[in-house]
Amino acid sequence: MAEQGSDKVRDEFLSESQEIVEQLNRDLLAIAQASQTRDPGGEGMRVDPDLINSAFRAVHSLKGLAGLSGVEQMMHLSHHLENLLDSLRLGKVPLTPAALDLLFEAIEHYQLISAEVAEHGLHAANGPSALIDDFVTRVNEAAAASGVLVKPTSAQVQKKAQAPVPEPTYGDFELDAGMVSALTEYEEHRLRENIRTGRNLYRIIGSFPLLSIDVELENLKGNLKPVGEVIAIIPGTGTSDPERIDLEVILGSSHSAQAITGAIGSSSARVIPVPRQKAANLPPSQVEHTGQISIGHKPSHATGPGVHSHSSHPHRDGTSHPGPGPVSASMAGGAHPSSPGHAPAPAGPSGPGGGDGDNDRGDAAQTLKSVSQTVRVDIRKLDVLMNIVGELALTRSGIQVVHDELRRDRVRAELARALQDELRALSRKLDDLQAGILSVRMVPLSQVFDKLSRVVRRMSREAVGKEIMFVVSGGDTKLDKLIVEELSDPLMHLIRNAIDHGIEPQQTRLSRGKPAAGTVAITAEQRGNHVVIEVEDDGNGIDTQALVARAIAKGQISEDQARDMTRHEMYELMFLPGLSTRAVADETSGRGVGMDVVRTNIARMAGMIEIDSEPGHGTRMIITLPITLAIIQALVIRSAGRTYAIPLNSVMESLMLDYSQIRTIERREVITLRDQTLPLVRLDDIFGLQRPVDMPMPTRGYVVVVALAQHRLGLLVDDLLGQQDIVIKSLGKTLQGIPGIAGATELGGQQTALVLDVRAVAEEAMPRITEAA
Amino acid sequence: MTVSSHRVLVVDDSPTMRAFVMAALESDGFEVTAAKSGFEALKILPGASFHLIVTDVNMPDINGLELVRFVRQSQNHKNTPLIIISTDGRDKDRDRGMHLGASAYLVKPFKPEALLELARKVMAPGANIAPMMVQPAPKKH
């Protein structure tokens, strides 16, 4: 690589910090999601503590990273955010919507700093920044908001838990002092919270083989997550078997020991309730022994009747004993917990216990995993690989030609067959390689959707008198990285329009019999080789009359034209440059600000955008995108002796046409296709191609029907040569920007062809269509 | 004093922090083993012997304090010098770590020299911890 050392350090910093910031964003979104269920009157929100802890850890990591890379502003920012998050996770400060907003705002600061570093290097974001200082001041104010609210607010208390325990005690639980002494402040806080909310405490003790401990512990945690909160994991000491580790999980749960044992599945761990002084809810015999077990105790070989033994399954059949704890004969003798030379840990079955819970693993663990299994690749390197694959495919075609030659020669028929076999094998591998590289390029749309959710949150707070519900679905739909990157601006634009101009103020909505909160939904779905993304709102809808009036006023259409327009043609007006202004948009049309730019951006990704709207009920924007731009399927055609490739994703169909079927309506050539009038465009006219003199005007040819939003357009060509996978190459600076041409491609056999930009070709033809209409 | 060929175990879940601590110690001739979690440390410790252990406090699953406790109760490392790395403002965690038997603490962020100086201090003979004992690997069962 020709990268400079410092560039490399910077790039590493950027990609690592980006990953962490994305994780932070996901955590915050999950927190925001969870906090929707808060008590309306509560001052704080009830949120999975793991999420806040994960956010804390993310900021903590960013601080470390920034510190090492010398990005002072980011270190400064992270340091203060970390304090706030620490107070939040320790319950010193209640999690309020305002605090959450602040955290979301932090993400934007992180991104500004990253952008600065990306542009000007690692030390660009050093020195004081008024913006960050101001933000830090607010963060510190929020963190200092503790004072009164050292105790978590009532909203954080589950309903059944009355009378919060005021003293920092562990209730009536008999906890081992040694164990408590090794808890971090956070773990201790979680322990108290669990006690305060009326949960029971359990110790889950197991012995794990060193070799498989990671997997087994993840499984155990995954299985425990649905039934409670893992407060701490404590290693046992004095293991006599060097191949195993004893571990004890402290779990807070409102479930019974039996239920927890059931949740653990086939793992060899045992569940022991932490005894209480009063022990009101435990049979005395059990209290007796469990009371003697403390930290550092190895799992005993003797498991009680109520608990599964190593070889048998836990009592899933429901016939087992209801008692909560194991009854262990050897422990009844009062074996001291940390006495050395205690019975060796049982060799439990080491098979991974209950893999079902894998999906429930803690966030932190998942993050660590994904980081260690991911290789970051510059997309440009994948482009290079993709080009090589494309070229290999061409070479393959070349060999095919040689093969065809060979086959004609009878003498070489044998050789030809052998070559054919090899060619087939090569083709298969090439397809695999291409699919493999493509799959690496694919990223989930959630990368964009997560960003959007954050911005929508902020915008909906700023939108006075409006309440917005943002619904996202299909974030796991995958698209080429390049497309996903390019999507955020257009989508943001559409969503901003929906919020600013689509969704009505609450009062208006109520008077129209709509729910007070407006819904903006974004959905994604794969359909064949395309991904369809829809941005939908339940607001005003588009006022076509205002739109038309505006277009007439600006001289873009005549009144006569306006009279004959269909509704969809009117919507198309929104994509005319400069048509819609704020004045129109705010009060009436609701849309159109910069929609021409949106369409251009989407067209650049070989995509299409259409509008559908129902006045008074809402608007839907439908974006159709190819899954990748790296390799596309194209229809190869000839016109006036030249070869062109038309991306297949814009082709609806093609049909043979006798030119006598062409009619002329108001100087426009059209045909009737399934009872609909289809305007025609001659490709040679568009490009001003001269037919060679010796080539007579054909009397028949082909119509390639292309789709453009609501329009269908027929491209009149001389011949169809077939379909082919092509890699589009840029035409270079001098030829770039020729309307109607997206690039060039090689077709094999040293042939090249220009690739049509269907959108631009149609735009070229559009005015004529409008004229004809 | 030279500390070459002294073995040290570095435990930190943050890759950057781990790399930083490792680089600092390696530059001074330490032979560094890294563990990216408390667990990994648990796996390594019983079968090895170190002259120094450096661990972060805040780690998922097995935290640094639990690790200190484990180390101090183990056969082969109960007297090994141990430095905990903590974050500013988390005094409670730090106090607990010291109480559990850590030899010293270091507050993030720190310079490599600070770590090395502390390492020399806690490893010096007569440091206020029992003299280091290098034990053979634990006997097999």
How would you characterize this protein structure?
The complex is a heterodimer of chains A (773) and B (141). With 773 residues, chain A is an alpha+beta fold. Chain A folds into five domains: 5-156, Up-down Bundle (Four Helix Bundle (Hemerythrin (Met), subunit A)), CATH 1.20.120.160; 177-369, no CATH class; 379-443; 445-626, Heat Shock Protein 90 (2-Layer Sandwich); 632-772, OB fold (Dihydrolipoamide Acetyltransferase, E2P). Chain A is built from 24 helices and 22 strands. In chain A, the strands form five sheets. In chain A, strands 14-18-19-17-16-15 form a six-stranded mixed β-sheet. In chain A, helix 1 runs antiparallel to helix 4 and helix 4 (97-120) runs antiparallel to helix 5. Residues 38-43, 147-168, 279-372, 581-592 and 768-773 of chain A have low confidence and may be disordered. Chain B is of the alpha/beta class. Chain B has a single domain, classed as Rossmann fold. Chain B has five helices and five strands. In chain B, helix 1 packs across helix 5 (112-123) and helix 3 runs parallel beside helix 4 (91-100). The termini of chain B are far apart. At the A-B interface, helix 2, helix 3, helix 7, helix 8 and strand 2 of A face helix 1, helix 2, helix 3 and helix 4 of B.
